[in-house]
Amino acid sequence: MAFFKKSPWLLHYDASSCNGCDIEVLACLTPMYDVERFGCINTGDPKQADIFLITGSVNHRNAAIVKNLYDQMPEPKVVVAVGICAYSGGVFADCYNVKGGVASVIPVDVYVPGCAAKPESIIDGVVQALGVLEEKHKAFRANRKGSGGKYEISDSYSAEPAEAAQPNAEEAHHA
Amino acid sequence: MTTQLYVAIGYVLFAPIIGGLMAGIDRIITARMQGRKGPPLLQPFYDVFKLFQKQNILVNRLQLPFVVCHVIFAIFTGFLFFQGSDVLLIIFVLTLAGVFLVLAAYSTGSPFSAVGAERELLLMMGYEPMLIIALVGMYEVAGSFDMYKIMNAPVPVVLYLPGIYLGIVYILAIKLRKSPFDLSTSHHAHQELVKGITSDMGGATLALTEISHWYETVFLYGFLFIFFGANPIVGAVGVIVTFLLEIAIDNAVARVKWEFMLSSAWLVALIMGAGNLIPLFLINRG
Hints:
The complex is a heterodimer. Chain A is an alpha/beta fold. Helices cover about 30% and strands about 15% of the residues of chain A.
C-alpha cells in the first residue's frame, strides 16, 4: 500500500532567504490551506521527516547544516526547493557569502517557482514530490530485500557524499 | 475468570484499533476547533503504516530493546487490568513502561532526547501521587483492588470519590502528554524541543511508541470507566465527556512550565485526593 502519499511529514528549513517563502510555507498550515487535510505534518525532526522543504540560497556557513539535516533523514526521502533563491541563489546569487542554490549541497527532486512562492504552488510541489517519494520507496524496498537488514545504526549510514549537484530533476509546473 | 481472560485478550487485539480511532477523532476535533477541516479519521493508522515502511535508523543497539520493552509493558498493563489483577500491581507496571521510554531516550545521548526524558520523569512525578490516592480511595469504597469488584460495587465509586475523579481527569492530561502538560514531547506543529523524548526515534521505532500510546490511552479511559460502576451506558457517557473535555483543554490552554505542572499536580493530589479521602475515612471508620 502507498502510505507515503497519505502521510507525508515535512521538515522545513530556511537556508538564507528573505523569509518570504517561509511565511508562505507556514501559510499552508493555516485554516485557509490546511495541508493537514492530506496528512501533511510540519515536523521539526529530520529523523521523522519524509520531505525536506528548503527555502533560500545556501551560504558557506549553513551548507554543512543542510547536508547534516539531509543525512539524518531516513530513506526514502525527497527534497523540495522552494522559491528562486533555492534554485539558483536568486537576488543573493552574487553575494560573497552565498554558495548557490540548494542543489550545490544536496540533490534536489522538485523545484517550486516563485518569489515568494505561493502557497498553492508549494502544495503543488509537495504533491509532485509525493510521486517521487513513491518511486524512491519502491527502489528502497527492492534494495532492502537484497541486503536483508532490518535496521541500521546511525554511524554506519550516509558514508557516501551527496550526489553531484545538478539541478536535473523535474521542475514544478505551476498553473 | 475465563470471561475476564477473553476481555484481556480482546484488549490486546483491539486496543490499537480503538486507540488509533480515538487519536483520529482527537485530530479531527482539534482541527475543527481551529477552523480547519482536518485529516481523515484513519490518519493515525496511515502515519504508523508509513513509519513501518521507512528506513529505521537507530542511534545505538540499546535503543530498540528499550522501546520494545516499553511497548510490551504498556500492553501488559492493560492486559493485567482487564484480566482483573490487583490494580496496585497494574500501576507499577504502567510506571515501568514509562521508565523504559525514558531509558530509550537517555540511551541516545542527544541533548533534545535528554531534556525530553528529564521532563518525562517530572511528568511521572506529577501524576503518580494522584494515581496512588485514587487506588486507596477505590479500596476504601469497594474493599478490593480487583478492577471487576470495584466496577461491580453496589454504588458507582465516583459518587464516593468525586474529588478523586476530578483529580484523575487533571493528571490524565499529564499522562497523555496533552497541552498544557505536553512538556516531554509535542504533537505536530509545536516543536521547540524538536520532539523531546522521541527526537531520536524514526521509522518503526517511532511507530512502536505510537502504538504503545494507543494501548495506554485505552487502558487509561478503561480506568476512568470503572469509576462509573457496572452500567455501561453511564460509563460510556462519563468516558466520552471526559475525552471531549481533555481535547478541549488540549486546544484551549498554552503549555506551562514544569514547576507549575509539578506543583499544581501535587496540589490537586492534596486538595482533591486527600480532601476526598479524609472525609471518606472518617465516615467509614468513625
